[in-house]
What does this fold into?
Amino acid sequence: MDHQGVLHALLGLDIGFINTRASYFGILEEKFKLEAFGRASSSLGKDFQLGSGAGAAMQDLQSRSDVHILKPNGELIWPFYETGLGVDHIAVTISGGPKLRTVLLGLTDSGSLKVGHALVESMPLALVASYNLTALSNEAELVDALVSQHPELVILVGGENGGDERHLRAWIDVLKLVLRILPDENKPDVLYAGNVLLEERVKRHLEPLADLTVVPNIRPDQDEIDLVPAQAAVEKIVVKRYQKSIPGFKALITKSKSIAGTKSFALSRMIRYLGRANAKTRKGVLAIDLSGGSTMLGAGTDEDSGVMIQPAWDGLPGSIDIGMIDFVHQWTAASVTRKDMSEFLCNHALLPNFVPEDIDGLAILQAYTRYRIRQTAHRFAKNFSWFPYKQKKGLAGSFEPVIASGSILTQSPSDGRTMLMLIDGLEPWGVTTIVLDRYQILPMLGLVGTQEPVLPVQVLGSDAFENLGTVIVPVSSAPEDEVILNVKVKMDGGKDYDVEVLQGSLKRLVIPSDVTAELSLEPMIGTDVGFGGQGVGGRLKIPGGSMGVVIDARGRPLRLPEDDEKRIEELKRWQVVLGG
Amino acid sequence: MIVDVVRATSCAEIERVRKLPFPGQVLMEKGKEVNPQDVIAEAQVPGKIIMLDIAKGLGISPDETTSCLIREVGDNLEEGDIIAQYEKTLPRIFRAPINGKIINYYQGQMALSTGTIKTQLTANMIGTVKEIIPEYGVVLSLRGSVIQGFWGNGLAGSGILKLLDASQDKPISASMLRDLLADLIIAGGACVEGEVLDACLENEISGLILGSLSPDLIQKAAGMPFPVVILQGFGEDALAQDVLEILQSHSGEKISLNACKLDHANDERPELVIPNDEEKETRELGFRKKLELGDRVRLMSGKAKNQVGKVVELIEEDQFFENGTFLPAALIKLPSLEKVKVPQSNLVIVG
It folds into this structure.
């Protein structure tokens, strides 16, 4: 940034559990663009300084591009020089740090605590205990339990604004006791996000005893939920604690006019922005990140939005869920036993950065990816009732685009397999576009947007995001192999053609990346293609993509043959249809 | 690329920091020898809180109660001590029902701590107290062999090492565990039958070291009352040759097992240590380390899985593998002199 405050170049650093990614945003033809990208192992842990992994990612970025951001001694060139060297700003998002041990206090499981859980699961927090007001009946036991849990963060929620105060008063008294007992070195941060009438009381009693943050009620009335102020406060607490607990984090974020935040809250910002920007289309937006340490799902419409983080290995290897094993076995496109699969998954959980080098291992991992997507979508729907996902139905609402990221997707041998993992996992309905965020920059744009609002807008419109293809899902109860949809395809500068879509089929229409096409969808009576009911069709103008158009008429929910041989054959056939 | 480090060495100067979560009292002196179960430090915080309704006891309003208090927050009380006294028309007193410490008072309600919550820190290894960390804990040290693993059931203990005869060829069977002396630490290859764990329980062994464990036995192993450490992972793998050689040379000696859970956030790994004074010492490498040429590594995938080799090349370009993926790879020279290509992510440094 020069003396007039104009931004020329920004470096984004995303610190994940396994990898640190560096992305350089500069100005080309008067617009911000992603100019270069680099990656290196994250240097998290007692033996490292976080900056060394970040430095290696910057070196990688520099070695792959013409961008010059480092001095010969490895130091960052800052500020930006008119000659084009260096950067004005650094933005750091982090998702790889330890989750804060969190205790949630509230009134009822189905009310304030449900919303509290949604808050906890949207941020890098580990819930160690959650108590409703029945716990107040044995205060002595409760205080002992809270002290023994060594929380780093206590979140107190509950009560609608203006509602009954008695129980929250009791919680404040208990918390006061607990804070008095805990040694200074172990006092948790306290976040109050409950009934507004008690804010003064909370401040009076708890502020002298702990670092207290008071934010607007996350559930001001029965029908309203607002997690954003609480998420922003949690983010500050997380960043503050990481500066003490992660070697090198403080040094990294205090230099070069840095801004820092959690990846999940940055994604939440971006989802809110995109949801509102999509208002005209009446469609929501969905982002899913499948990284080595966690699965992150964000979804938003013009009215609602939410984010959720789930651990990638979900209890493995400690507890093996039979339902999970059955599901993964069913979706594995290779002949493997349940035992082999359990071994593979349990061992993978012990070594999170493991990558399969053989066919069977990759088939298991890609099946497990479908499980991760479905589980996260299912849990997301539990936290956010507006999200139209049902386990036995799929994602019935209209979300476009679906923006996907994560090494399991980007390291996939083909875009077709990436597409299949996403379609099989989400089971979308209607029409959607799948976009691949190959460089995992979407959350970064959310953080950067707080400083330079135009940057995300311009980068989103650039080629940093890869249009994988358009997915059309006709849903019908017609018998197998019956025609349920006719599609007329009109390509820019190419010849026109018609396609008949049979019930149960999976089809791919090739639309090259540099071409746009107009599709006319003519569903049979009884077929829903998401245009407003059965038999209702319409026209679509779509951009090309590596997968073109995928017409998924396999039905909802997706069903696989019982017989192992036929099942594997079917899974492989679908892979072939989408290019192998 | 930064990869995990797993120790498997016959001689090292091992140092482990053991710290309380909050300040307390260190119970050991510098130079003292410890066993895994020894308590080395403890901390106490007030606990067993009882609430006293002073206002109700005196029959007055909460607002009036404050002026009647004789004792204040922080005071230690003995049973029968007067806490509050009302001296107007009908005098009344409120006595402590039990020994305790006043930790809070508000609006006629008093919180009395009548006990403590004790947090104890055990040594979890054989060793010597090398350094005291005032109020928090100690640095323990030991010269000897150390072998680290991937999974533990959270317990620690010590005993005499017994290496099962058939540890290499086939999975352990319950019959191999007949007529064992109690307090042994058993080491073997793969455990695929629940009966093996039952037999360990019957024989009252002090610990179990396995090359691998069948995943369906994880829950059962987690519930065993003795420490269980899995060195290689889940499946039917025998003990790796390098590990077997170390264990063979110390069979019959006293060893200690810290079967802590693998914790990437706190850089903790389950491990066993065997005190000895061998001369050839290897250096500490930490929990994770950047992979470099010459590193001794264990292969976690491919046809040479579980073998230990040496990194002879870190290949610059991503390499193609049979499943169609392109990955950063390394060339590893095996003891047989054969060279194999492995994804760098699937290597752990053995130090």
Chain B touches chain A through 57 residues (CB under 8 Å).
